[in-house]
Each structure stands twice: as C-alpha cells, then as structure tokens.
Design brief:
One of its GO terms (molecular function) is heme binding. The chain is mostly helical and 95 residues long. The chain has 4 helices and no strands. The protein has a single domain, classed as Orthogonal Bundle (Globin-like). Helix 2 runs antiparallel to helix 3. The relative contact order is 0.10.
Length: 95
C-alpha cells in the first residue's frame, strides 16, 4: 500500500515517510496486518448474522474516527470486502 497509495500514509502517524521496505520490516505493521486479518475474518464469519455484521463494521469504523480517515475510504473498502464475502459465500449482502 505504501508504494501504490502513498497519499494514504498520512493515516499512519509516525510512518508518513516509510518506504514499502520499511513497512515490510516493521513489527508495528506486522501486528497491524494480523489485526486486519482478524477483522476481515470476523466480518466473514458474521456475514450471515446481519445485526452482528453491521455492529462489528460500525464499531470498527467508530474506533478509527480519531485517525480522521475520509469516510469515502471506508465506503470503498467496505464495498470491496462485502463483494468478496458475497462471492465467496455465494450469499447476498444482508441489507
């Protein structure tokens, strides 16, 4: 991401000037990667339970408000995740 979308670096306080190689060698980003994988797994596992799915997604977004992320970024990411889960599970988005 740091190589392909350098404009998003502003959301990573203290790492704004990291290179892609710095990210690869960073314990911070290794831990963050694990947290992201866990979050996506939770979204996939709760996909069929509409209220839990939406609550977890909402809570995740709310936890990141302090980082001043553009809501449009969340929308794009959320749509991509939902589309992937929908295709993988052969289900429809629960609304």
């Amino acid at each position: 991401m740091f190589g392909n979308y350098p404009d998003l670096r502003v959301y990573f306080k203290g790492a704004e000037n990291y290179s892609p190689e710095d990210v690869q060698n960073s314990e911070r980003f290794a831990k963050q990667g694990q947290r992201i994988l866990l979050a996506v797994r939770i979204l996939a596992d709760t996909y069929d339970d509409q209220s839990t799915f939406k609550a977890y997604a909402r809570e995740t977004v709310n936890r990141h408000i302090k980082f001043k992320m553009d809501p449009a970024l969340w929308n794009v990411r959320f749509i991509a995740i939902v589309n992937h889960i929908s295709k993988s599970n052969n289900n429809n988005y629960p609304g």
